[in-house]
UniProtKB/TrEMBL annotation:
Belongs to the RRM U1 A/B'' family. Residues 110-121, 129-138 have a biased composition (Polar residues). One of its GO terms (biological process) is RNA splicing. Residues 6-85, 148-221 form the RRM domain. It comes from Mucochytrium quahogii. The keyword Ribonucleoprotein applies. It is found in: Nucleus. This is RRM domain-containing protein. The keyword Nucleus applies.
Length: 221
């Protein structure tokens, strides 16, 4: 029996699409159904053509599965199932996470590497008291005050303007992306501060490559 899960296991993806591009395409395809916490595409030859999409809510995953199963993406019909095991990112959020040893990956069971980046930990883990500006011996940098323009730093060289446009235009009020390649930064403009804030909350920590996550702050006034 196909038991509903936060995580969708997708097979029969086009193997000619590289993992970085595929991950971005899957995000733009599935994020309209709800908040996508993580997407895992494995470069391993045995698992090429497969991916895992993790939603914040099971109902979101269910809606996406119903709408996208057998839909064509790059000339191939996607075979979408619920993953058989809970992903680490969900286990961390609901408090049931237990580290597990590495093992061979087995299709719908999902990769053991599924899990949140440091930037995707729970709000409790990220929150620092106003009366305690030092955490674990390190000074915590204060955020810039809210602004309708977001500032993206430490972008990987392969992250193009088009990729950022695809990510951010999913949010209401998106206006434009301005990239500064020489500094590996970009500015994302929205029409209002609330819309910029929603995009910041939704995409902070999103993995744009195997080694990079989006680092977002409000632009300086």
């Amino acid at each position: 029996m196909d038991v509903p899960s936060h995580t969708l296991y997708i097979r029969n993806l086009n193997e000619k699409i590289n993992a970085k591009r595929l991950k971005l395409l899957l995000y733009t395809t599935f994020s309209r159904f709800g908040n996508v916490l993580d997407i895992v595409c494995v470069k391993n030859l045995k698992l090429r053509g497969q991916a895992w999409v993790i939603f914040e809510e099971i109902v979101q995953a269910t809606e996406a599965k119903k709408a996208m199963h057998d839909r064509t993406l790059f000339g191939k019909a996607m075979d979408i199932q619920y993953a058989k095991t809970k992903s680490d990112v969900i286990a961390r959020l609901d408090g049931t996470y237990v580290p597990r040893p590495k093992r061979k990956l087995d299709g719908a069971q999902g990769p053991t590497s599924i899990g949140p980046s440091a930037a995707q930990k729970t709000k409790t883990e990220k929150t620092v008291s106003k009366n305690n500006p030092v955490s674990n011996g390190h000074t915590v940098k204060a955020e810039e005050p809210p602004h309708n323009i977001l500032f993206v730093t430490e972008l990987p060289a392969e992250c193009e303007k088009t990729a950022l446009e695809i990510l951010f235009k999913q949010y209401n009020g998106y206006k434009e992306v301005r990239v500064v390649p020489s500094r590996n930064v970009a500015f994302i403009e929205f029409d209002t501060i609330p819309n910029a804030t929603l995009a910041k909350l939704g995409l902070s920590g999103f993995k744009v490559s195997e080694t990079h996550t989006l680092k977002l702050d409000f632009a300086k006034q």
